[in-house]
Task: inverse folding
């Protein structure tokens, strides 16, 4: 199921307009830009985003609302369907953009809610996330105005930010992953596990992490481990990611069930082509490739067709969660993966058809007046040989490879009067009736131990 990015952008803009209307007394001016990714560059499509019929490529809508002493930025990106919010203070020399989370380090009250969220891949989720964000903005709006006029608070914000960045740069990748998971546990109210992890790195915590750590310890001490809601369940991206990753096991089950079905379906057109081709070929007798030849391209075509076969199975297994799962997977895979998959599918399709064409004509045909030699697999044309040019038909009793290994597998070879030898081992053995037919044409039969013994 495709996500209509144009509708999502339009909804975001409508929500921004509603916010502006409710705060028109405080907003002095505003600027709204919509850009889309065009190769490695970005293209401004503010005035024509609705003309792109779904806008399937990555795009960003950003609204900057100018107030007295500060500016607010609301941003919605279709890369991860993320809604972000930031504040830039006019009197901040560094012009750092702070999140609400960072601002609450110096605001009154201990607000630890997560207001920036992602995986908002439908209109309902975006509405909930935007309203949740606005609730935080409204709660702290007066405090933000006061901070924007307070140079000491701005200095404290800067010092916190610089110290936090320095701390995070000193962390190893493992430590970063562990500490990020702590906040994930906090959002799911799993305070006991989060506290144990935080305790290992208590000397390396940022201001925000220290606040979360202290808050959880106080909640545990007061027996209030389930009262605080960091983010509504409907837009909890961490919970969504965990839930969707667990469902990947269901997709694996659907793959295993789809695999044999895909092989059968993929092989049917090639097997049908095999029988249809040899129904029309003009021959008296023929050595043709075995039936497994058309199955080979059928297997590759079948593997690719699993992508389509598994969908009804996923719908059956996931039911109401199917749409969210598909949206999540498409968002995670990205446009590049879809392009690569389509190109790979085209390459596999062409390769299967070429292989089938070569495989169908990989034969040796015995006609009334001569032999058509198509035993060279990669050669698009065969060679006509008159029976008068055939010196003898040899039966080899065993196969001797280039390493000197002997395999007791008999086969046949045709020697021409010019000394050329056509080895029929790769194609197959002539039938008894075909051998009798060749004898009737006056071709002598001989026996040798190995192909190398034919003089």
Result:
């Amino acid at each position: 199921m495709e996500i209509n990015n144009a509708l999502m952008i339009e909804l975001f803009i409508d929500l921004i307009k509603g916010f502006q209307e409710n705060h028109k007394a405080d907003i002095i001016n505003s600027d709204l830009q919509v850009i889309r990714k065009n190769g490695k560059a970005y293209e401004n499509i503010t005035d024509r985003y609705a003309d792109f019929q779904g806008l399937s490529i990555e795009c960003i809508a950003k609204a900057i609302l100018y107030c007295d002493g500060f500016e607010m930025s609301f941003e919605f990106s279709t890369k991860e369907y993320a809604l972000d919010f930031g504040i830039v203070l006019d009197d901040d020399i560094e012009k750092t953009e702070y999140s609400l989370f960072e601002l609450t380090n110096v605001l009154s009250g201990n607000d630890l809610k997560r207001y920036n969220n992602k995986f908002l891949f439908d209109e309902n989720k975006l509405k909930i996330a935007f309203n949740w964000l606005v609730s935080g903005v409204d709660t702290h709006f007066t405090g933000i105005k006061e901070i924007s006029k307070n140079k000491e608070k701005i200095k404290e914000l800067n010092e916190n930010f610089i110290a936090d960045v320095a701390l995070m740069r000193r962390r190893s990748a493992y430590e970063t992953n562990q500490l990020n998971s702590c906040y994930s546990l906090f959002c799911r109210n799993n305070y006991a596990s989060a506290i144990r992890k935080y305790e290992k790195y208590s000397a390396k915590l940022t201001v925000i992490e220290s606040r979360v750590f202290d808050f959880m310890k106080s909640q545990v001490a007061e027996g209030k481990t389930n009262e605080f809601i960091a983010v509504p369940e409907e837009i909890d991206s961490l919970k969504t990611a965990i839930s969707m990753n667990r469902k990947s096991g269901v997709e694996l089950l659907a793959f295993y069930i789809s695999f044999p079905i895909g092989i059968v379906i993929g092989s049917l057109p090639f097997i049908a082509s095999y029988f249809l081709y040899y129904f029309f070929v003009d021959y008296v007798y023929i050595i043709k490739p075995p039936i497994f030849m058309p199955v080979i391209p059928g297997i590759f075509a079948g593997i690719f067709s699993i992508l389509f076969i598994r969908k009804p199975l996923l719908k059956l297994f996931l039911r109401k969660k199917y749409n969210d799962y598909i949206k999540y997977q498409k968002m995670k895979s990205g446009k590049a993966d879809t392009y690569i998959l389509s190109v790979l599918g085209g390459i596999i399709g062409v390769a299967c058809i070429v292989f089938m064409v070569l495989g169908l004509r990989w034969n040796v045909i015995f006609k009334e007046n001569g032999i058509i030699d198509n035993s060279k697999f990669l050669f698009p044309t065969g060679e006509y040989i008159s029976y008068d040019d055939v010196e003898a038909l040899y039966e080899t009793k065993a196969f001797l490879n280039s390493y000197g290994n002997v395999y007791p597998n008999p086969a046949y070879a045709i020697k021409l009067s010019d000394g050329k030898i056509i080895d029929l081992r790769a194609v197959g053995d002539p039938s008894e009736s075909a051998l009798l037919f060749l004898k009737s044409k006056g071709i002598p039969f001989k026996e040798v131990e190995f192909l190398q013994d034919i003089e």
About this structure: The first helix runs from residue 5 to 22. Residues 237-360 form one domain.
